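REVIEWER CHECKLIST
Item 1: Sequence provided? yes
Item 2: Single chain? yes
Item 3: Sequence as submitted:
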Amino acid sequence: MDTTAKKPKVLIIDDSPTIRRIVQSVFEREGFDVSFASDGSEGVRLALMNLPNIVLLDIMMEGLHGFEVCKMLRANSSLNRSAIIMMSGRSYKPDIDMAMALGADSYVVKPFSGEEILKIAVEHMNERASRL
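Item 4: Structure as written out by the authors:
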């Protein structure tokens, strides 16, 4: 493995420590540099600071919820290459439509497997990288 190559970065924004831990272990095992935030405001700050390849974003959080965070991230052109994957326990079509309208690349309903979220996230990361 080329140790000079930069590891792709993933930012997990979720108020659930369990979800953060599970997703972190899956992505670290695949060689990603993982950071996380437990609320939307911290997530926006970290995204702008680190410019992650992938943002895994929970919808239901105190303070700034995921829809607001997604809108803020998509408004910043420095994050155009970042794939945003929304995660929620809600599978309502209006929520999915709203996420996609705000610029999310995908919407994954909890519970999900680590392999499922990894596959979806990497697919969208590669798609965004090839588009820009």
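Item 5: Key structural point noted by reviewer: The helical segments are 17-29, 40-50, 66-74, 93-101, 114-131.
Item 6: Recommendation: ____
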